[in-house]
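Supplementary Data S3. Sequence and structure tokens for construct A.
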Amino acid sequence: MARRAIYPGSFDPLTNGHVDIIERACHIFDEVIVAILINPDKHPMFTVAERIEMLKEVTGARASQVVIETFEGLLVEYARQRQAHAIIRGVRSIKDYEYELPMVLMNRRLNPQVETVFLIASEENSYVSSSLIKEVFLLGGSIEGLVPHSVIERMKEKLI
């Protein structure tokens, strides 16, 4: 049986930190499902379809190992439906760990068969977040080297 993990998130926009976590998760698991959470309360920069396209562009070299999907509702229920063994979470700081810990414990209570695996952000991505990227970009700052080039181009199109 293949070892399957889910890497959930909004990916709005996709950052090099996300790409790094996906790449590293592929070294551990046979299949990595990159799952875009559908959250009607958020007002994303990119549509779900656009985020799927960006993820497919960037992960194309690993198309046999990376699956791009969307989900709603409880992550552990989605993990059960997809027969995933693990949930991948990227951690940049102790603040991220403190935020993630209660969710990990609740997920474990709801579905003890699914483990959460923390992957520590690489040094060069340890301060990068999607919200910070959007803020810097919208204020005219450079995000070069922090997101894939194709994402920068798509963000520029949003300003037109």
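Construct B, processed identically:
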Amino acid sequence: MSLKTRFTCLKFSITLCFLLVLQFSYSQYNFSAVDELITANKKLFDNDLVALIYKDGKVIYKNETNKEFTLKTQAPIASCSKWLTAAVVMTFVDEGKISLDDKVSKYLPIFSKYSKGYITIRQCLSHTTGIEADNSALKNILQRRKFATLEEEVNVFASKRAIVKNPGELFQYSNVGLNIAARVCEVVSKKTFDRLVTERLLRPLKMRGTTFIIDYDAAPNPSGGAKSTAGDYLNFLSMILNKGIFENKRILSEAAVTEMQKVQTGNAAIGYTPKVADGFSYGLGEWIIETSTQGTASAVSSPGLFGTWPVVDNCRGYACIFFVKSILSEQRKDFYVQLKEAIDEQLKSNCN
């Protein structure tokens, strides 16, 4: 056999082996049930959905239902923003610049002036500040347009909003607490929130299609004002799944990720929970949607009003995102639950 012939055979063998390995990596999962659910429910999301599943360092499933709406398409993510903001706050905790149990008034003295001096950063991230909340999404959007800075908005929370319960005694899902915590970070760093989130989260996670700057004449909204892409947000989810590490670089400490996934509301009464999260517990900036028999968070999420539903499943070792444009309905919540169940059938749990 000539040298040329042997070289050709070697190339063929290597190629064949590669194809066999690639075929095996795709064939070990069967997500046909996920495909069928998406196809059968296109009307729920106006045929604009990107579904991604990440496991073992790679995307193992992708479904883009519309060629004009892809994993790089930017869209509002509403309350999915809260998870990002909580992560930014936790970078300050990791650095020792703030503590979760610090009183907000330590950094924002105006809160002491208006009898809100005992509210902690932890309570801000877990919606238990006790400050009166406005749960009308449309009213919130209209009111926020009058604020040019986050400082202006948070000062109104301090001076104009009533305390309806002592801090820690009432859970009210709203924009109040996360925006206060973000303002604390502005004061500590002497930087605007949009700059902080870019430097500490978006740039390290290569989230180039994500921004909290929607209107240059209005304040950023850390609780619900981001735009992102399915691909970008999956980078964030992979970091959470990998205990704070992204592409071999630590973004958050493992302790920070763990703390975010602990139930933080204790015995607080439930004042307001959106129907889309009914029955879930709350950590720091995220919902705990499943727990193990030991009581630890086995799956966490932060669904948005506009329909995007991100999930990290610690027990099955995967992250996924269902990224859409239109407003979330109760019917779509049921659809997402069915999607996760179909995924879970293929990715068995390692937890009890």
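The longest helix spans residues 3-27. The chain has one domain: 30-346.
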